[in-house]
Amino acid sequence: MEKRNFLLASNSPRRREMLGWLGWQFTVCPANIDESPLPGEAPEPYVLRLAGSKALAALSNAEAHQTVLAADTIVADGDVLLGKPANAAEAAAMLRQLRGRSHTVCTALAVIFPEDRASVRRAICVSQVPMRAYSEEEIEAYVTSGDPLDKAGAYAIQHSGFHPVEGFAGCFASVMGLPLCHLLRLTGQTADPYAICKSKLGYDCPISAAVLRGEALG
Fold first, then answer.
1. For the chain, which ranges sit under pLDDT 70?
2. Distance of CA 192 to the CA centre of its chain
């Protein structure tokens, strides 16, 4: 199978790192769009719309041979969307809101292929994320580190010091911002995402094979 060359329409260092794990060739061109939700917009339509808008915004910067790839992630507590916190106080409030409960993380992908610039193909991964009952002291230390400030929901699932999530059994990569199995399925490319997540994240993914088969799991 011919390897595609990608234009990644994202400013996320985590997405750049994860796309690099696949060994794919890509350049980066962040797409700046209005990310405000529409009135009453639910989490899944919201991230699908934003991912598509980012891909379309980046399209004019793509070379003729490049496949445009965009992604968007949102943390949702019920119907309440939790984006990136504006400051430390907001980050702490989000972490308290999520503490000891499960919430939803939605990551949408959007792809525009060079052979069909008129179409935006989308996929979404929806994960249920159980948070542990971390202490106020842990919240304070984590917020002081600055790590939550550029992350939806004010946390990184992969943070080894804070480790906010326990009992998770979904797509770890999706909660980080780039669901690798869904990406492979959408683009038709090949890789071993199970081995990648095992090696890079220490995560023994229980759903990888099922997602690659086409099941709607997250």
1. 1
2. 19
State which amino acid sits at residue 79. D
List, in order of start, the domains of the chain with CATH numbers. Answer: 5-212 (3.90.950.10)
- Decide the pairing of beta strands 25-28 and 5-8: parallel
Question: Mind giving me the DSSP string for 171-188?
Answer: -HHHHHT--HHHHHHHHT
Interval 29-59: pLDDT, tens = 999 899 999 999 999 999 999 999 999 999 9
pLDDT value for 1: 61
What is the pLDDT, as a whole number, of residue 2? 73
CA angle (41, 56, 67) in 5-degree steps: 125
Which pLDDT score is estimated for 3?
A: 85
Backbone φ and ψ of 125, nearest 5°? -120, 125
Could you say which of 72, 77, 150, 192 is catalytic? Answer: 72
Please tell me the distance from the alpha carbon of residue 155 to that of residue 147, in angstroms, as a whole number: 7
Active site residue 116: no
